[in-house]
């Protein structure tokens, strides 16, 4: 099956799994949203479980925002800017699906995955650990270059950046969604505390 054909199935399936609980996504709903017969849908993904796993793989585990690629990034400030741009791009992509309250839906999808995706908890923990490690790497680079204070605790600073984002994303999921402008202000404020000579 071509990538276009796979995308034609996975993107609408993703939307359904965002809106409804796993149990509520029927074959009839899949056919209607995707616009294909069950035979065409399940030719590639033999079961609803396999389709759900493919959706989680693509939209959770395989999602690699450019903002988390530190190659060519010269400093922590630039990395923060890239990270924020990546979040904005991801939000636009999700909003293009037409899902109301995308952030709350996203957390619900993760809870569903914890229940229906084998070894999800292990894979998501590894993904979160990698995120912290990427922050640690760029913060250490900033410390070594003199961009930030030599007394900076790299691990604690990485966790701080990580938890500012994840905490806001969770709380804002109950409202209109993540306030990227406020996140930017908080990141810049924390960055100023870390800057050398401040």
Briefly say what this structure is:
The protein is elongated, with a radius of gyration of 19 Å. It is 71% helix and 0% strand.
What do you see in this structure?
This protein has 9 helices and no strands. The protein has helices at residues 3-19, 27-34, 38-44, 48-61, 76-95, 102-116, 120-145, 154-172, 180-194. Helix 1 (3-19) crosses helix 4. The N and C termini lie far apart (56 Å).
Average pLDDT works out at 86
The low-confidence parts are none
Question: What is the CA-based Rg, rounded?
Answer: 19 Å
Structural class comes to mainly alpha
* Number of DSSP E strands: 0
In DSSP terms (H or I, runs of 4 or more residues), the helix count works out at 9
Q: Please report which band the strand proportion falls in: under 5%, 5-15%, 15-25%, 25-35%, 35-45% or over 45%.
A: under 5%
Oligomeric form of this entry?
A: single chain
